[in-house]
Amino acid sequence: MKAIVHEGKEGLAGLTYREFEEPITGPGMVKIKIKVAGMNRRDLLVTKNHKADAPPVILGCDGAGVIVETGEGAEKYSVGDEVIISPSIGWEKNSDAPPPGFQILCNPTHGTYAEYIVVPEEILEKKPEFLTWEEAGVLTLAALTGYRALFTRGKVKAGDTVMLPGIGSGVLTFILKFAKAAGARVIVTSRSEEKRKKALALGADVAIPTESDWNEELKGETVDLLIESIGRATMNKSLAIIRHGGTIVTFGATTEDEVTIDIRKFFYGQFNLLGSTLGSHEEFKEMLAFIEKHHIKPELDRTFTLSEYQEAFEYLRDSRNFGKIGIIVD
User: From CA 134, how far away is CA 126, in angstroms rounded?
Assistant: First the structure.
């Protein structure tokens, strides 16, 4: 089968598009013919962390397709079922943190950038009928990450003001749509005027430049909940804009990981700083019910084919997307 594989070199230089051995369906597993897979910034992280001397790994954290084979004991689904794949492995019930043994699909397991994948049946759900294959294929990692950050960790409620610095990623475009569906006021930032305009068109109430003075732009307005995914470049601006007793939920760091804060201002402000990572399968099912209720679809930026892998990874690396990027497999 054809696949996008990382091997031999670190970074994007280790990417190849080549023939790879088709996986075998073991007990409790199902084989899926992938229709569409979704790109995530985790793919870039894997190319950095996957060592040159490690065994080859197929990239891709989420996707959608059709079941072509079921292993012994796998009884939840049948051949021909249309399914979506959650990247969360070994985290069944919602909890404060992932349990021991939790893994994210792709590295060390093989991912979805291939014609076929074999996965445990418990990480699958039926493809929502109102979604196209492209929309279903890019859904899972970003939507689940956004759902847990906003609802489970951030506990958003109607009337809250939510701020999303750096709008444009798949996760943040989902959070924008989720927050508006929940009745929140949403403020976004971006260095790109085009992305700010797109966010306003999706329902954002206010869009300001990331590099600006946020307090000056917002004329003293404070924020109840801020979803921080940038890191060092914006963390202190984020702490300066949330109300006393407000909450920051962080799930990523597109700039440097380490940050320095004024701890005295932090504790006098009674701030809450919470981490979040992906989500459980229980939350995955809750998220699917939420998007079906509100008819929420992914913001699909563009698609590439498997053979266009180099262009696709450079497009993701340079943050040229507004929303999700799909990889057409079938």
Answer: 15
How many beta carbons lie within 10 A of that of residue 309, not counting itself? 21
Which ranges constitute the DSSP H helices of the chain? 41-49, 133-137, 140-147, 170-181, 193-202, 214-217, 235-241, 263-268, 281-294, 309-317
- Burial readout 282-299 (b: 16 or more C-beta within 10 A, e: otherwise): ebbebbbebbeeeebbbb
pLDDT by residue for the chain (330 residues), tens only, comes to: 999 999 999 999 999 999 999 999 999 999 999 999 999 999 999 999 999 999 999 999 999 999 999 999 999 999 999 999 999 999 999 999 999 999 999 988 999 999 999 999 999 999 999 999 999 999 999 999 999 999 999 999 999 999 999 999 999 999 999 999 999 999 999 999 999 999 999 999 999 999 999 999 999 898 999 999 887 788 889 999 999 999 999 997 776 778 888 899 899 999 999 999 999 999 999 999 999 999 999 999 999 999 999 999 999 999 999 999 999 997
Pull the structure tokens for residue 77. Answer: 């689904």
Residues 6+ apart with CB under 8 A from 139: 38, 62, 64, 84, 131, 298, 324
The gap between the terminal CA atoms of the chain, to the nearest Å, is 11
DSSP 10-32: SGGGGEEEEE-PPPP--TTEEEE
In the three-class reduction of DSSP (H, G, I as helix; E, B as strand; rest coil), residue 79 is classed as coil
Which residues have CB under 8 Å from 183's CB, separation 6+? 157, 158, 159
Q: Write the DSSP string, 118-143.
A: EEEGGGEEEPPTTS-HHHHHTTHHHH
Helix, strand counts (H, E) of the chain: 10, 18
Strand partners for 117: 32
| Residue 328 φ then ψ, to 5° | -80, 120
